[in-house]
Every structure is written in C-alpha cells, then in structure tokens.
Amino acid sequence: MSGELAFLASDVEAGYGDVQVLWGVSIEVRAGEIVCIVGSNGVGKSTFMRCASGLLPLRAGTIAIDGVDMSTASSADFVRAGVAHVPEGRRLFSAMSVRDNLLMGAYLREDKAEIEADLEKVYASFPILAERRKQDAGTLSGGEQQMCAIGRGMMARPRLLLIDELSLGLAPRIVDLLSDQLRVINEQGVAVLLVEQDVMNALELADRAYVIDRGRVTASGEAAELAADPRIREAYMGLA
Ligand SMILES: Nc1ncnc2c1ncn2[C@@H]1O[C@H](COP(=O)(O)OP(=O)(O)OP(=O)(O)O)[C@@H](O)[C@H]1O
Ligand SMILES: [Mg+2]
C-alpha cells in the first residue's frame, strides 16, 4: 500500500434538494488510523460518507487529501486518490458472480497484472469468498455479502477505506470476524473511516471517534475517552 494519508474534511455542508443535512462537519483521518463516526438514525452519517467519496457534491466547506483540494472532484478522482467506499447496504451486483463483483473494485486500475494477485489476497482474507467465487453475489448470506463488499473496496488498493455500517444485521460472530479482518487491513497501512450503529464495537475498534447529531459534530476525541464518557454511554450505549 502506497503513501501516507491525510484526509481532512472542513466545515462540510451538504444535503438533498431543499433539505440541508450536514451543517459544518469537520472530520480528519490520519495515516494508520481507524476513525469511527457514530450517531442516531438519520443524523447524516451516510451523507457525510457520500461527500467523503465524491458521490455527493459539497454545498460549502472543503475536503482535502494529502493537502490536495478534492471539493469539486468526481468519485473516480476520489478512487484514484486512494479512497474506496463500502456503501450502506453493500450494493453488490446480485446477478453477477462474487469474482466479478470483486473485480468491479479494480475498474480504474492500470496495473492489470497485479489485479489477479490482489484477488488472491482478498480470497486469503475471506476464504469463504474463494469457495463461492463463481456464485452470484445475490445468493450470499449477509455476512458474506459484507465480506464481498469490503473485498471489492480492497480491490481498488485504497489508502482510505470508508465503511458505512459494518455490523448492521449481522450475527456477533460475523461482526467479530469482520472487525478482526479490518484490523489486519489497517495494520497493512490502510486507514479506515467507519460508520457504525453498534457504538460499543465501534469505539473498541477505533483509535478516534466523532459523534454526529442532526448534521453537526457534537463530540470527538480518543475512542477510549468517548467510551468512558457518561453522556455518550447514556445516549448511545444505553448505559448509565
Ligand atoms: N437521497 C436522498 N434524498 C433525499 N433525502 C435524503 C437522501 N438520503 C438521505 N436523505 C435524508 O438525509 C438525512 C440524513 O440521512 P443519512 O442517510 O445521511 O443518515 P444516517 O445518519 O446515515 O442514518 P442511518 O443511521 O439510518 O443510516 C435523513 O433525513 C434522510 O432522510
Ligand atoms: Mg446511514
């Protein structure tokens, strides 16, 4: 994996039509970090992830990668800059094979010779995908689909992996497996920005975290500190 990463979103505003969703969100991811965004339903987490991968235009604010302004860049520019997005709901092509879905992640790559080798790495990380490589993605279980979506992201050789809802709807055993695999990916030099409903799991996995409420960052800091904060424990973990 090449290069140090610095991803910096500053005062991002974004929305849909007449509805503004994000009101000045600033989030940073540094090389080597796992950063998570937590917050209740509908507060704008996925909207931020769409901005962070160039899928949704900013109305105000900036996004920079390695100091280069990406505020008006296309989603393909973000991929080329090293950002891969694993979207909410996984968005696989259900009538295409697992292998072809994985290859979709490499569509902008020029180094065709290395793509097969990276496919083997994904299969090594998620052996069940190797077993099912010829099967349509639509026939996979939820956990296998998430593995396939993460694998597809890795096929872009990202420096920053954006994952929107890692654990939603998955059994604890599968969530543990995915979390372990994310740590391995991170140790290989890929920074991770994660949106997660399961706040406890997210704060265990992450180095730092941001809390978003109604389109604004309301708390941020070291994940361990936030996990110990009584306000966070009460509001997001149901703990007193
Ligand atoms: N494509 C869209 N068109 C119009 N409004 C949208 C669109 N996508 C999201 N919204 C609205 O923007 C707001 C924020 O949605 P977003 O999906 O970013 O929230 P979220 O924090 O990811 O929620 P969840 O935890 O349920 O995934 C919501 O009010 C939602 O209805
Ligand atoms: Mg969402």
Q: Main beta sheet: strand number and arrangement?
A: 6 strands, mixed
CATH topology assignment of the largest domain: Rossmann fold
> What are the secondary-structure elements, in order, as H or E?
EEEHEEHEHHHHEHEHEEHH
Distance between the termini: 42 Å
**Shape type:** globular
> CATH first level of the largest domain: which class?
Alpha Beta
Total DSSP E strands: 10
Largest beta sheet: strand ordering? 6-7-8-3-9-10
Helix content: 25-40%
Strand proportion, as a percent range, falls in 25-35%
Q: What would your notes on this structure say?
A:
The chain is of the alpha/beta class and 240 residues long. The protein folds into two domains: 1-82 and 159-170 and 189-240, 3-Layer(aba) Sandwich (Rossmann fold); 92-157, no CATH class. 38% of the residues lie in helices and 26% in strands. It contains ten helices and ten strands. The strands form two sheets. It has a six-stranded mixed β-sheet with strand order 6-7-8-3-9-10, sandwiched between helices. A four-stranded antiparallel β-sheet has the order 2-1-4-5, with helices on one face. Strand 9 and strand 10 (216-222) form a beta hairpin. Helix 3 runs parallel beside helix 6 (142-154). The longest helix is centred in the last third of the chain and has 16 residues, at 172-187. It is globular and about 45 Å long. The protein starts with 5 loop residues before the first strand and ends with a helix. 43% of the residues are buried. The model has no long low-confidence stretch (mean pLDDT 92). Bound molecules: adenosine-5'-triphosphate and magnesium ion (MG). Magnesium ion (MG) binds next to helix 1.
